[in-house]
Amino acid sequence: MLQTAIILAKIWGVLLTLVSLAAIMTWVERKQSAVMQDRLGANRADVLGLRIIGLFQPMADGLKMFFKEDFVPARGDKFLHTLAPMIAFFPALLTFAVIPFGDVLRIGTLEIPLQIANLNIGYLFILAFGGLTIYGTVLAGWSSNNKYSLLGGLRAGAQMISYEVVLGLSLVGLIMVFGTLQLDIMVKKQGELLFGFLPAWGIFLQPLGFLLFLPSAIAETKRVPFDLPEGESEIIGYYTEYSGMRFGLFYFAEFIEIIVLSAIMATLFFGGYQIPWLYAEGFQFPWGWEWNLPHLLVVILQIGSFFAKIAFFCWLQVLIRWTLPRFRYDQLMRLCWVNILPLAVLNIVLTGLVLMILN
Amino acid sequence: MANIDYNNLKTNYETSVQKVEMGLWEKIYYPEVIRGLLLTTGHFVRNMTVHIAHVFGLARNKRGAVTYQYPEERRPIHRRYRGRHRLMKKPDGSERCTACMLCETICPTQCISIIPQEHPDPAVEKHPASYEIDILRCCFCGYCVEACPCDAIRMDTQKVEIANWDRTRMVYDKEYLMTDITGPGAPPENDPPLWWLQ
Which family would the database say this protein is a member of (chain B) (predicted)? Predict the structure, then answer.
């Protein structure tokens, strides 16, 4: 009974955190892009004359979307048209279930692992549900009864399936190094040290893997410079025929994907909740200092570090989105199949060789 | 004119389009991408520092954005900017216009319509009984100001927000053109005529 309550509390906590973070991300995206471009950004939405640097803008956007006409094209497939945004939204949320956001929390004799579901195939779970979002985009294009949407959906499908391949391959090296698919063990192993001082984060073990993972992951979330599936105004993407809250769900899913992708990057390559040299008892610096901390403080520090990493990668993704121009479609495909794919295979071979030599 | 043989027209596309080949440094994307990201990060860090300094009341003379926050903060307008018209006044408060019809005549969009009238003062010949400008037709060329021999109409109110909910209210009458003339930075309403007219 208590266990069930704890799991439910974790699910609700993560769900609420994710959804509210996504709402804040819409604000962050607008403000950060504005600051990067020497503007101020949205600051007009006010409640009773109170503006607080545009923080009411997400609420105003949400309200607007709820009151817009919910349009289904004539002779479009109404069922699939409704289902598509849900399919796009749902796996993005579900992926977070396997990501550990903290170490085990001990209250008395109670041990609470700070992870919703500790699957032994957690890594495959992420890839599987990442792949499921393709259905959302393709179905959205198909059910709209619009040839441009259909072409947009096809483009999106081709892009996402291509990058799914390199996304998986770029992470194989990491599995070989850690020897597991279980994410919490991966994170625990990243708490160890390399050469006695360097934290054994994925980025230090697999630098090439990270450089290949980052573009393929951004291509999976369909953001600039890989945003051809959407192509907001000029090449017409798969959600042309969407309006109101159905469109809002696609939009919201994109922001949740940003956060989830940041969480995956932090977990796989940047030590998850680990802080360098922080162990369960406290800090143990490589030059011999020790600083013992109470258990609760360590757990809070770890969760804080995890969310700080998420915040940093969200910032990085928005930075990339507002810096780079879009790829042309042939460039996009060439980058995937000609450049990243051989390098990913090379990375696997090199990792295997190094592991063979070391053992 | 020379005869051009359109069938045998040859443009040297080889030289007219210069194709810049990317070197290896550009082709591996990452260095150039990072260079671009550093540029935008520089802007972000600089502007963010200024914004945070503003919160603590520091660096007031620096701006974190190049944009103007429009209704609160206005872009300075040059004093020769052609804004909304106004009719100048004599020292006694009546209109300076003598209804000579030059502005109505020269107006390319014919948006000015004047009804002249005998002036009650026998020393003055005419004055406008009504002076209307259809601001929806006006093209802000400023010919009326140039044509006016007694500096009675000017466009120096610096008013640029000419909007209304109702088309009928966009025809400005004499009273409106003589009263609502206090634009920011505009000269006073009975500014003496320009020196060459005195």
Answer: Belongs to the complex I 23 kDa subunit family.
